[in-house]
Amino acid sequence: MSLKIFNTLSGKKEDFVPLNGNTVFMYVCGITVYDDCHLGHARAYTSFDLIYRYLSYLNYDVNYVRNVTDVDDKIIGRVHEIYPGKHGSDKMKELCSDISEKYYNSFQNDMAALNLSEPDKEPRATKHIGEMIKIIKELIDKGYAYVKEGDVFFSINKFSDYGKLSKRNSEQMMVGARVAQNTKKEDPFDFALWKSASSDEPSWKSPWGEGRPGWHIECSAMSLKHLGVTLDIHGGGQDLIFPHHENEIAQSEAYTGKPFTRYWIHNGFITINREKMSKSLKNFKTLKELFEKFPPRAIKFYLLSTHYRSPLDFSDHLISAAFEGLKRIENALMEVNKNISNMENEKYKGLEDIELMDRFKNAMDDDFNSAKTIGIIFETVTELLSLVSSYESNKEKIIALKNTVLKMLGILGVIYMINMVRKVCLDEKNILLDEDITKTMQKRDLENIDIEILLNKRLVYKRNKDFKNADLIRDFLSKKNIVIRDTLSNETEWSLKK
Ligand SMILES: [Zn+2]
Q1: β-strand partners of 83
Q2: Which protein residues have a CB closer than 5 Å to ligand 1 (ion)?
Q3: How large is the average pLDDT for residues 403-418?
Q4: Which of 7, 47, 123, 369 could be stapled to 308 by a disulfide with Cβ–Cβ 3.0 to 4.6 Å?
């Protein structure tokens, strides 16, 4: 079986064939930086991280771009909330940039806590105003857009394919969308490419006067610049299908005359009592609130336990249940590991269970079904626990299954804590810079590899008689419930606190 992806554009699962051989161009709509992230953001970015990781595992060369919207009504609103009064355009630009920076950092910390890979590029809207103006100018020249008193609108009636993604006719659009009363528009669904700005809003010079771009044009400009005319994958939450993605298609295809995106992927909502979780309904949980109650790895595992397109119901109880499940896997692997000597681990390093890996691949090839793969992992750890009582006669099978489970967890991006490395000895080749250590020590959940890195560095500090820094690492690990013990042969043993 080869990878199949559900494409919102066709409404069915399709074989995945990138346009340019092995290279995949993937664009995901990023956040508008005006507040802390909530669980809905975590779901979207975890879903696309899963897709990114699996495509990379399949040896695709993925170019992953996720934008940052750093100019928007919501950011301006936030600035006015914090700094009431009039500031003028230049000062507003500065204040908006401060707010954006603050929440971009907050977003990055949350994503790192969830062990999400960083995209290859994170372009910012305010750094692409020139590119946007160029596209808008040409859309006007081609007759797709019109100017009204400093604003520029896209005329949806000029683009005959309008509605092909969301499959809405104009009546359904009326029902589905909030139509702002804007008498400047020729059709209520025409959307703004450029908005004239008041003297108290951040603004840029344009052929139509001072103003700022509309939200939709940002993604068309940034994806074109960083990935090219036709994207293989464009993703976001289901709430972006209409109008945001529909509008992106209209602008981009009208501008280039070429197909914009080949596979549209949308993740499902998070619901609370079957109602959508969203900021406007004020029923959302920020990740920072949730991290106070649960380790990030529990939240990550909960998110991956449901297929990315299905609605995901939220409650503390459901996250606790997912965490219990993850701990069951971790404990089983630790139990199995007790029997395996370091020498055997080394000897059978690359040993895998081919049949198990095939089952994993079949599940993931079916539109990235992480829920199914987690089911397979549960079955396998149960099998492992039953085999381990007769370790000697099943040694190779046990090690192969264990190695494969760890590989699967790695591809899913699940953070797990198991007592894999019992001894760490000084490894001169793999000593990291202090800056990298600082980064590792900022993580909220540690993986085995992080523990190894820190213990290795601690051995270096000890050798150099820098006991202050060596103790800093020991205390940090202790706070993470990891006990360490130095052996007489200058190695360090570690284990999880009971
Ligand atoms: Zn977008």
Answers
A1: none
A2: 29, 219
A3: 91
A4: 47
Domain 290-412 has CATH 1.20.120.640: yes
Q: How far is the CA of 1 from the centre of ligand 1 (A)?
A: 32
**Interatomic CA distance for residues 302 and 7, integer angstroms:** 24
Structure tokens at 25: 């161009």
Q: What is the pLDDT of residue 446?
A: 83
Query: How many angstroms separate the CA atoms of 364 and 164, rounded?
Result: 28
Measured in Å, residue 79 CA sits from the centre of ligand 1 at: 23
What is the three-state SS of 212-229?
Answer: EECHHHHHHHHHHHHHCC
Dist. CA 108–CA 112, nearest whole Å: 6
The terminus-to-terminus CA distance of the chain in angstroms comes to: 44
Supply the mean pLDDT for the chain: 91
- CA of 338 from ligand 1 middle (Å) equals 49
- Give the separation between CA 3 and CA 259, rounded to whole angstroms: 22
What is the Cα–Cα distance from 374 to 302, expressed in whole angstroms?
Answer: 10
Distance from the CA of 72 to the center of ligand 1, in angstroms? 13
For residue 69, how far is its CA from the centre of ligand 1 (angstroms)?
9
Per-residue pLDDT at 440: 83
The rounded Å distance from CA 28 to ligand 1 centre is 7
Domain boundaries, the chain: 4-267, 290-412, 423-496
- Token pair 């009064």: residue: 85
Q: How confident is the model at residue 167 (pLDDT cuts 50, 70, 90)?
A: very high
Name the strand (E) or helix (H) holding 344: helix 342-347
- Spatial neighbors of 109 by CB under 8 A, at least 6 apart, are 442
**Of residues 203, 199, 222, 223, the one with CA closest to residue 213:** 203
Q: What is the mean pLDDT of residues 155-165?
A: 95
SS3 283: coil
Q: Which residues contact 253 (CB under 8 A, 6 or more apart)?
A: 159, 161, 259, 260
CATH says 4-267 is which class? alpha beta
Q: How many Å lie between the centroid of ligand 1 and the Cα of residue 205? A: 23
